[in-house]
């Protein structure tokens, strides 16, 4: 679909939504919107795409309650704002939209989370993407280093060929917020795998140790929970360049969730899982078993960590044997470890020993 | 031999007074430097208030505390009381156990006649200085002034010097003592003590000049002097064996019957004869010949014979209006939200002594929400500062389940938490203190029970208010939805789809589906502006009765547009609301004129003739219109069922943290 068509579809869908609210009031009903519940208990595995999507459970956002009424009013303001942007060929960041709402009187958002969530609600209801609404996230600074050549259309419409190893500085190629084909084309790559890394410190360690060259790897820095564009970028590498993907994170419950959202689909954006998740991605570690096997320096799990692990035990995405075992083991030993704890054995240990061993175990490296 | 015994006896007497003091420092209130200084203020202030009350004078009391050196302070207490005649001054101030109170039964602040003389003695023992008293009675042109010490060997006042001086006030007494002490702020301080005094004595004006200067004035909140309290004779039910024997010894009556009749209350000659008969004591026997056995038999007989309860009109409770005035006057700066209408219980009796319990509660606003509730304890209008835990008042507070009344309390016992101050006043002709220090009321079952009942009654009034407030805020939320948000949603959606703004009546009545009554009262320029707005947010027209409790003779008829159909007993007013159409609003507005602000600060509005579930903002008329607000359903209406059609899940209350994922 061309951009204009996408925007037109968004306008139509949004007007339809406003029309539904209008008609309900006109009929003397209490206006409401029906939206799939975005909860842990309402995600289902879709065997066709091998990712987790929203199930059939629906929730109502009704004007009968204050929160519901406020959200409906905010929705109306947001629709108007989006339609105006499309008309005037402008776009705004999510943060800007949050500030725009300062002028919306009773419809003002109290936090940016609220406005981000509403933008996602609209995606779900209209089956459009927030980019179609002319809403974009801030750059989040995720970066890539490896022998990958791509072509990026810059802000002036000029096409630029970039090799993600030779044409970039030490900080690598910055992933833009839009990584669709109209923006980025992958030209060629000489690599055997993609390693998605949680922390900047570990990313820099692998770069300094030239692991990209030695292991023929494309290194992607996730920067904590990966942004949509980072996940989409990884998925395209996986699908288009046929590269296996693995995630390398800290060994704690939050890092398990990073892998889950990259590989299985995030609960919050399960409507886009098919588009963002890489179901074949493998988890390298740090696992609870690694903590024991490699005798890593650890920290004690705090109350929140334990809570998070227990929540994961009821998370359908972690229902397989591997995760059950690792989660239980972590609870049992009551410890967590950072990726950089591997430095206990020297700076080269991670690239000389740990990664080769783990990747071989998975059958990715010989 | 006998001379040695006499010598010993003499010696015993000589050491007795100062030894007595030394041994009883604690019960006399001088066990620490801090407390000694408070006691040195408290005793003369109590005396001043009692004196003013006896003479029906509105008290004006000045308390000044000056620091002389490290631990020596000068305390001055001046009043505008009736003054003390010259002859009595030394005895009143410098003789232990001399006073008019010791043998009487009346609701007085001082009870043993130790208080102020103990201060004089404490002063001379710790600083070596005499106490200066100046007093003027209205018959005299000049005041009598003397410097006193207490001769501890003889328990006699010693006048160091005295004179007549000019004092430019019609009458009054000034007391100035030098004591060793320690001046502090905080919960147990002179300031807190005087604050308490001001609350329960709203007729007194109290000025406090602390050592650091800047005078603090507790202004008078009422011009009514409490009626003088009456003395009563002991009631037979409270008499103990020894007391009975000593009374029999010193009576002037010549026969048992006349002794019982004249020395006790509620014993007629008929009852006296009945008692003697039952006890097997000859009615004509001389009382001073009564044996121990006979005395015991008489006490037993008293238990069996029906004797009227003691009279209770000798008590002078503060009263509901004045408690509230006092609390508001003194605690005003704390900016509390609500002064629950106080409770003054009917007088009751323990061991032949009449007593009455009063309770007031202050709630909300800027009071601290995280702290235990503050308890203000009073006995005969005197603040109790120490031994909170040992006091029946505290124990009663701890025994009430405050969770039922909207305060937090772990497990339903103990001192509750929340933004509240609880005042409890016990007045009696004889307060049963746990010890002579008069800081804690003993846990007498009758008293304890009365305190609990009073607390619960007042707490119910608080709960009624809280229920009302909660309902109102719930109604306000819905009101905000239909008044502000729905019209904006309608307008915006109409704009987006390019159609005219739709009519809202259907949606609004479906969301509310109630009659909402919003009442308000404002006090301005000595008028109460009362407004009652009735919104019919139901889909059909509504007819019902609206009732208000208000002094109808004070309603300004010019402002009353909607005439009531009935006014009963001058304050029960009923309006007939006829066929108020769906989404229509009816306003009842009128003024009250000539009512003080305290007398009317909350509307009492009720409805009848309509399904209670379909009205919010006011209570449903109690079954008996004669019941006042305190008896309205304690539990409140059954909780409204939470909306949600056909078990629909509320999208925005799925409350699950999903924010740690992008």
Describe the fold and architecture.
The complex is a heterodimer of chains A (366) and B (662). By secondary structure, chain A is of the alpha/beta class. Chain A folds into two domains: 3-136, Arc Repressor Mutant, subunit A (Orthogonal Bundle); 143-361, Dna Topoisomerase Vi A Subunit, Chain: A, domain 2 (3-Layer(aba) Sandwich). Helices cover 42% and strands 18% of the residues of chain A. Chain A has 13 helices and 17 strands. In chain A, the strands form six sheets. Chain A has a six-stranded mixed sheet with strand order 10-7-13-12-14-15, sandwiched between helices. In chain A, a hairpin with a 4-residue loop joins strand 2 (43-46) and strand 3. In chain A, helix 1 (3-26) packs antiparallel against helix 2, helix 3 crosses helix 4 and helix 11 (303-313) packs antiparallel against helix 12 (321-333). Chain A starts with a helix and ends in a 5-residue tail after the last helix. Chain B has 662 residues and is of the alpha+beta class. Chain B has four domains: 2-218, Histidine kinase-like ATPase, C-terminal domain (Heat Shock Protein 90, 2-Layer Sandwich); 236-304, Orthogonal Bundle (Helicase, Ruva Protein, domain 3); 320-464, 2-Layer Sandwich (Ribosomal Protein S5, domain 2); 503-635, Immunoglobulin-like (Sandwich). Helix content of chain B is 30%, strand content 24%. Chain B has 14 helices and 24 strands. In chain B, the strands form four sheets. Chain B has an eight-stranded mixed sheet with strand order 5-4-3-6-2-1-7-8. Chain B starts with a helix and ends in a 12-residue tail after the last strand. Residues 99-103, 627-644 and 655-662 of chain B have low confidence and may be disordered. Chains A and B meet through helix 1, strand 4, helix 2 and helix 8 of A and helix 13, helix 14 and strand 24 of B.
């Amino acid at each position: 679909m061309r951009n204009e068509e996408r925007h037109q579809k968004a306008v139509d869908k949004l007007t339809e939504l406003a029309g539904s609210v209008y008609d309900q009031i006109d009929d003397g009903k209490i206006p409401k919107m029906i939206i799939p519940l975005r909860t842990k208990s309402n995600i289902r595995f879709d065997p066709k795409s091998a990712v987790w999507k929203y199930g059939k459970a629906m929730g109502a956002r009704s004007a009968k309650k204050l929160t519901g009424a406020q959200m409906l009013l905010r929705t109306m303001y947001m629709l108007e704002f989006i339609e105006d942007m499309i008309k005037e060929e402008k776009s705004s960041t999510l943060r800007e939209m949050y500030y725009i709402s300062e002028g919306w009187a009773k419809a003002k958002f109290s936090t940016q989370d609220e406005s981000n969530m509403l933008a996602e609600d609209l995606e779900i209801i209209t089956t459009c993407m927030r980019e179609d609404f002319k809403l974009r996230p801030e750059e989040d600074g995720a970066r890539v280093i490896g022998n990958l050549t791509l072509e990026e259309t810059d802000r002036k419409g000029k096409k630029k060929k970039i090799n993600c190893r030779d044409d970039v500085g030490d900080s690598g190629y910055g992933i833009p917020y839009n990584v669709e084909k109209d923006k980025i084309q992958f030209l060629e790559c000489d690599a055997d795998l993609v390693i998605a890394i949680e922390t900047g410190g570990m990313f820099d360690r692998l770069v300094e140790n030239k692991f990209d060259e030695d292991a023929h790897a494309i290194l992607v820095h996730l920067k904590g929970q990966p942004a949509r564009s980072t996940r989409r970028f990884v998925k395209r590498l996986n699908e288009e360049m046929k590269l296996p993907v693995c995630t390398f994170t800290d060994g704690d419950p939050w890092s398990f969730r990073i892998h889950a959202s990259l590989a299985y689909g995030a609960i919050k954006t399960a409507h886009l899982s098919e588009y963002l998740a890489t179901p074949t991605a493998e988890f390298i570690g740090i696992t609870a078993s690694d903590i024991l096997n490699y005798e890593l320096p650890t920290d004690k799990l705090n109350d929140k960590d334990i809570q998070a692990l227990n929540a994961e035990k009821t998370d359908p995405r972690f229902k397989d044997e591997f995760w059950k075992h690792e989660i239980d083991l972590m609870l049992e030993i009551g410890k967590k470890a950072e990726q950089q704890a591997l430095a206990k054995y020297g700076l080269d240990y991670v690239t000389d020993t740990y990664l080769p061993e783990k990747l071989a175990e998975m059958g990715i490296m010989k | 031999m006998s001379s040695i015994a006499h010598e010993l006896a003499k010696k015993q007497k000589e050491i007795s007074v100062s030894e007595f003091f030394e041994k009883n420092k604690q019960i006399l209130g001088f066990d620490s430097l801090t407390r000694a200084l408070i006691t040195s203020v408290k005793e003369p202030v109590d005396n001043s208030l009692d004196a003013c009350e006896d003479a029906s004078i509105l008290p004006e009391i000045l308390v000044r505390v000056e620091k002389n050196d490290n631990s020596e302070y000068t305390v001055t207490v001046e009043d505008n009381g009736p003054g003390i005649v010259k002859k009595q001054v030394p005895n009143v101030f410098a003789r232990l156990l001399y006073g008019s109170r010791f043998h009487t039964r009346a609701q007085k602040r001082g009870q043993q006649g130790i208080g102020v003389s103990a201060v004089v003695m404490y002063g001379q023992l710790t600083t070596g200085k005499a106490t200066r008293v100046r007093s003027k009675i209205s018959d005299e042109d000049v005041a009598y002034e003397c410097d006193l010490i207490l001769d501890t060997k003889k328990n006699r006042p010693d006048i160091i010097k005295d004179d007549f001086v000019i004092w430019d006030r019609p009458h009054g007494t000034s007391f100035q003592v030098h004591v060793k002490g320690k001046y502090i702020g905080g919960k147990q301080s002179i300031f807190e003590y005087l604050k308490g005094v001001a609350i329960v004595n709203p007729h007194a004006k109290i000025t406090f000049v602390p050592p650091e200067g800047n005078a603090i004035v507790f202004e008078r909140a009422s011009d009514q002097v409490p009626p003088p309290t009456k003395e009563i004779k002991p009631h037979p039910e409270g008499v103990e064996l020894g007391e009975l024997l000593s009374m029999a010894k010193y009576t002037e009556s010549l026969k048992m019957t006349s002794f019982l009749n004249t020395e006790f209350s509620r014993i007629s000659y008929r009852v006296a004869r009945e008692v003697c008969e039952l006890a097997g004591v000859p009615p004509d026997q001389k009382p001073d010949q009564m044996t121990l056995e006979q005395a015991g038999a008489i006490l037993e007989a008293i238990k069996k014979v029906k004797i009227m309860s003691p009279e209770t009109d000798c008590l002078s409770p503060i009263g509901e209006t004045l408690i509230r005035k006092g609390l508001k006057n003194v605690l005003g700066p704390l900016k509390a939200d609500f002064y629950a209408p106080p409770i003054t219980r009917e007088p009751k009796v323990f061991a032949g002594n009449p007593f009455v319990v009063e309770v007031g509660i202050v709630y909300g606003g800027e009071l601290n929400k995280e702290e235990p509730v503050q308890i203000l304890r009073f006995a005969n209008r005197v603040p109790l500062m120490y031994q909170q835990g040992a006091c029946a008042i505290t124990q009663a507070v701890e025994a009430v389940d405050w969770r039922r009344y909207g305060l937090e309390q772990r497990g339903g016992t103990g001192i509750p938490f929340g933004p509240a101050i609880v005042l409890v006043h016990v007045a009696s002709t004889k307060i049963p203190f746990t010890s002579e220090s008069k800081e804690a009321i003993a846990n007498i079952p009758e008293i304890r029970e009365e305190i609990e009942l009073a607390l619960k009654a007042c707490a119910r009034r608080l709960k009624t208010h809280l229920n009302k407030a909660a309902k109102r805020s719930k109604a306000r939320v819905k009101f905000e939805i239909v008044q502000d948000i729905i019209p904006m949603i309608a307008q915006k959606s109409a704009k987006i789809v390019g159609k005219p703004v739709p009519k809202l009546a259907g949606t609004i009545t479906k969301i509310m589906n109630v009659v909402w009554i919003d009442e308000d009262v404002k006090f301005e320029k000595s008028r109460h502006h009362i407004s009652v707005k009735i919104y019919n947010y139901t889909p059909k027209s509504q007819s019902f009765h609206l009732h208000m409790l208000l002094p109808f003779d004070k309603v300004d008829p010019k402002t009353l547009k909607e005439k009531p159909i009935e006014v009963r007993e001058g304050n029960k007013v009923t309006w007939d609301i006829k066929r108020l159409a769906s989404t229509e609003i009816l306003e009842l507005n009128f003024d009250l004129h000539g009512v003080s602000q305290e007398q009317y600060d909350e509307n009492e509005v009720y409805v009848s003739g309509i399904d209670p579930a379909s009205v919010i903002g006011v209570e449903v008329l109690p079954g008996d219109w004669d019941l006042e607000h305190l008896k309205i359903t304690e539990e409140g209406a059954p909780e409204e069922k939470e909306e949600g059609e056909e078990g629909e899940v509320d999208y925005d209350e799925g409350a699950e943290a999903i924010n740690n994922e992008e």
